Amino acid sequence: MEVKKICSVGAGVMGNQIAQLVAMNGYNVSLVDIEDRFVQGGLNAIKGSLQRFFVDKGKMSQEEAGAVLGKIKGTTDLKQAVKDAQVVIESIPEDLGLKQRTFKELDELCAPETILASNTSTFMIAAMGSLVKRQDKVIGMHFFNPVARMRLVEIIRAAKTSDETFEVIKNLALKLDREPIVVQDSPAFIANRILHVIHLEAAKMLEDGIASVVDIDKACT
Question: Which end of the chain is more exposed for a tag (fewer CB within 10 A), N or C?
Fold first, then answer.
């Protein structure tokens, strides 16, 4: 399946950065959220990011930045946002019930061939997609903040994720100049599971009086 349009659900920190990344790589993007103020906030964040990190640093002309912005359409209409989209990437708050309801609604609104991906950093993909009919088209695509600089993308395969869905998302990550790694469905995946261990060990060292907060932070940095 050729990906031409991507829908980014959620215009917050991760959602607007993902929208910016895919637009910079030539894809048409719809950025959708539940209120216009969130959509406008996301669009303003993208505009500011392009100006500060690309135009002002000579990495992009003002015209090129304008062309990127022209590929992103903001809306509060989910049905309109997912129309003609081959891939939907969800980046709404980390609330399992909310994500399940959103995926169910996406399943009802999207074309049968549309892939439903999640940028979750916490929940199992199978649990999030448990209410949808297209179980084979549910997958995780976890970016890291800041999206423009962090090249790693965790691609999470649920038990029923099809090979075709996996290949489309893996190829999309490569076309976005990201470094994909493959993870079988599990809570927190790879990077965050490792990070949790570091957090716990740092807290234990502080509790045991081995070092101060400042010095533990310096060592980690």
Answer: C
